Structures
1.
Amino acid sequence: MQDQINIMHAITLTLISTRLHVLTVCDGVSGSHTQRRYQLKNLSWKSMDTAVDGKESQGQEVAQEENPKSCELEYGSYCLWSVEHKEEMKDAIVKRLKDQLFMARAHYPSIAKLKHQERFTRELKQHIQEHERMLSDTIADADLPQFFAEKLEKMEGTIERIKSCEVGCSNVERKLRQLLDLTEDEAYFHTRQSAFLYHLGVQTMPKTHHCLSMRLTVEYFKSASPQRELLNKQKFEDPAFYHYVMFSRNVLAASTTINSTAMNSKDSGSIVFHVFTDTQNFYAMKHWFDRNSYLDANVHVTNIEDHNKLSKDVESLERQQLWPTEEFRVTFHNHSQPLRRQMKTEYISVFGHSHFLLPDLLPSLNRVVVLDDDMIVQKDLSSLWNLNMGDKVIGAVQFCGVRLGQLKAYVEENNFDADSCVWFSGLNVIELEKWRDLGITSLHDQSLQKDSSVSHRLEALPRGLLAFQDLIYPLKGSWVQSGLGYDYGISRIDIEKAATLHYNGVMKPWLDLAIHDYKSYWRKYMTNGERFMAECNIH
Ligand SMILES: *[C@@H]1O[C@H](CO)[C@@H](O)[C@H](O)[C@H]1NC(C)=O
Ligand SMILES: *[C@@H]1O[C@H](CO)[C@@H](O)[C@H](O)[C@H]1NC(C)=O
Ligand SMILES: *[C@@H]1O[C@H](CO)[C@@H](O)[C@H](O)[C@H]1NC(C)=O
């Protein structure tokens, strides 16, 4: 065991849902740490209405300064986009030309390999050289030569051709996606250098999904909802039902996960889903789940901020917010491999801070199953309620490629087993009674308060892992097939026989960038024919 840890000299940890944090562990020394924060502006309902009905004004001008809420936004989220777009981009043409160059260079090697594309290859090469020449001594739009427009247009056409799959589509598409797998430093470099990755990033939270959320919210206030929930209130607290929990801001993802669970369960009427979301998404979620039904399953949407405001234990404003599952990209440098294969990447998903409120959020319940919103369920899961977990608190899939000892630069305590494996969120079985008895939440909170120098979100990894040390019941591998958000090499057979699929990684199934071969397993359970989806261009 010890050997294996020594082999990996450096681990780079990246919090992928924001891509704002970079941590490097080199032989136990912690490295750079960048962080940017944006303030979320309060959108009042009235102005949101205008933003939707008006000409898609993107909401930024309706922002008000009062009640500012810190919002560490996802790399590429709508909000980040709107904040950045308040400023006009300088030297936009130069940036655009650089984007083109970047794209063309990225595609060139795969095009050059194709048969019968010699002419196109030559053409592409020529365009690349011309762009390079033009940009070699130009940093500002004002310095561009007069013929830039012609070059820009030509290159545009060439790139269109590449993208339209006229030439060897799958190769090219794959190359483009690999760009997302750049290390954080590279990505940062490129976002500064050009607008390309920045725009690519914006696509990671498609505007269409934001539109959906807005439409649903407006509709919620316009129409009287059926209030189906009131009728089911008793069920929500009755331990005799199978209770599932999810923390989510993404209505479409949550809906798809829930639908897959209901469709594949032997008795959907015995299922209760508890969806916890934030103020910004609450009304959209509520309206959606009132409109849609999932066989006989019951869905209960809660605004976690409302709950936390009432709770005495949650004092700071920051803590009241929704902190859903966090994902970290871990890059290993395995120096015992040949140079080309030294880098290995895994995505580790861990509980966010909101998960630690579970015993309090569901006071009448004991066993619950927590699902992440990037999961698809393919089998009946009710046997998870019969699983004998002994005295363990949480059932989870373990990953022994990374061990706790390798994260020691981020952990204050010394009192832990350096050899213990990390585990994944995604599908977790939880014993809330034991959790309460052991006081895990308050231990976790204390450890959070001790050290505030590290970012709150970044802490989720070591803290979450430490909190459940020795309390993990390892779930069999057949319960979860993970990696569908980044690993191209998963076989159809493995996917089809798995009880659940986890799209951990950056290529979430609801994005354009999703891995093509894995999309259908998700789409199968996506609602179609919902009016708002058509209006928002979601197909
Ligand atoms: C936004 O501002 C309005 C008043 O301007 C206030 O009533 C409302 O509670 C605020 N909403 C949030 C989510 O802070
Ligand atoms: C690193 O490479 C060695 C040699 O190929 C291999 O035995 C080991 O399992 C690798 N470690 C990890 C964590 O992949
Ligand atoms: C659930 O999935 C089925 C297909 O498996 C689909 O026909 C149905 O529209 C989906 N329902 C919802 C509410 O998403």
2.
Amino acid sequence: MATTFLFLLLSAIFIAKAQRGQSVVNPGSFLTPTTTTTTNSSWPSPSGRYAFGFYKQGSGYAVGVFFAGIPDKTVAWTANRDDPPVSAAVTLNFTSDGRLVLQLAHGTTKRVAVYGETASSASMLDTGNFVVYNADNQTIWESFQNPTDTLLPTQRLLYDDVLDSSVSESNQSTGRFRAIMQQDGFIALYPIGTPYYIEYGYWSKGIQGPPLNATLNLDVDGHLYLANGNGIVTISAGGNSTKGLLYRLRMDDDGFLRLYSYNTNRKGDWVVTWSADSIGKCDPKGLCGVNAFCVIYDEEYNCTCLPGFAFVDESKRTLGCERNLTVDNCKEGTYDMEEEINTVWENDTLSRCFHQT
Ligand SMILES: *[C@@H]1O[C@H](CO)[C@@H](O)[C@H](O)[C@H]1NC(C)=O
Ligand SMILES: *[C@@H]1O[C@H](CO)[C@@H](O)[C@H](O)[C@H]1NC(C)=O
Ligand SMILES: *[C@@H]1O[C@H](CO)[C@@H](O)[C@H](O)[C@H]1NC(C)=O
Ligand SMILES: *[C@@H]1O[C@H](CO)[C@@H](O)[C@H](O)[C@H]1NC(C)=O
Ligand SMILES: *[C@@H]1O[C@H](CO)[C@@H](O)[C@H](O)[C@H]1NC(C)=O
Ligand SMILES: *[C@@H]1O[C@H](CO)[C@@H](O)[C@H](O)[C@H]1NC(C)=O
Ligand SMILES: *[C@@H]1O[C@H](CO)[C@@H](O)[C@H](O)[C@H]1NC(C)=O
Ligand SMILES: *[C@@H]1O[C@H](CO)[C@@H](O)[C@H](O)[C@H]1NC(C)=O
Ligand SMILES: *[C@@H]1O[C@H](CO)[C@@H](O)[C@H](O)[C@H]1NC(C)=O
């Protein structure tokens, strides 16, 4: 009797779940930055773990995919990340002709996801992948193939794919560091804008080829590894079967690649499970910008200007330093020479005082 009841109960739960199924978004749907009685600000995944839609950014809003079921709306993907935030007076439309656009003021629109075909539906999946389908239910666009700074479980970095850090925790615009899945089978870290040569990189991990075309993979249990059809190289073991653990890999604004986990049973904060190993806080090259150097202080990095230089912006010390001298100071006999110890100099063009005379 009890077993039958349990069976019926389980079937009921299963059917309820199956009916909720994928949360399908159809053309004609729209979102607004703030939820009202008639509009929503995001489309949630079936479990409610992820959502696609508006989130707060600066004094306005951005559009992207974020962890929705936890107190701190952690961002996993952002559309048009380098555009300024939008005001509250916009709508995000899945238009009747199948485009995903931001409807801005004065009737102008901006595409949120760019694809060639006409979309028939879209879906926020429970993996954190936002997918757009054509009339044949074929995927024509997915956030998993257009990563910003984060890799989610089951998402892969294929060769030449990159994760670019954000400016900061609260600004998702492109920052200064990049993780690239190289064709030679190495996942490697570089400052953005430098060539992919060994002297510019500051960390890497590789898998022996052939075959080439290695991928970086993250499993739902936190297993982070390189694979190339020949075998795998584990970067972080994972394997914890604990239910309710969420994972994400992020290229962080301080130049470190880190794997984070979040225990949904305990709430609390994201915890660093793994981070690019064998490098120091000051190793990400260019961390302090030009005319500055990095020192470790209390286990944290701290940027310091060269003598005679001052921070471009005292509140954003990683932007580097500029001359704090007038041209007059540069005249012969009016300057001092100082020796900097324990520093390594790159052969690079810096705005040095004597360039100005
Ligand atoms: C807002 O979202 C809820 C829950 O997902 C849904 O039931 C409701 O229909 C949505 N409202 C609008 C106006 O789309
Ligand atoms: C984010 O950072 C970029 C680059 O530094 C800057 O131009 C932009 O104004 C910042 N956005 C916000 C919302 O602070
Ligand atoms: C977006 O949706 C709003 C609300 O339904 C509508 O007024 C507006 O015309 C739509 N814009 C586009 C480009 O479809
Ligand atoms: C597309 O998938 C949805 C949900 O899985 C299904 O309801 C629909 O019939 C499918 N359409 C086509 C044309 O296969
Ligand atoms: C790597 O993948 C690309 C695209 O799938 C393919 O064209 C190329 O032949 C592959 N290279 C190797 C060495 O497998
Ligand atoms: C697995 O659990 C152990 C013990 O709680 C913890 O120390 C370890 O960091 C966890 N590993 C991962 C990959 O989450
Ligand atoms: C770096 O050191 C200065 C004092 O020299 C201090 O004001 C600043 O807060 C430090 N920055 C960090 C990130 O620790
Ligand atoms: C910059 O120069 C001015 C005038 O020479 C001086 O008062 C100031 O302290 C200097 N600032 C720094 C950060 O060195
Ligand atoms: C520094 O760079 C310049 C220009 O690229 C080059 O001519 C010079 O030989 C380099 N010096 C050293 C010491 O590497």
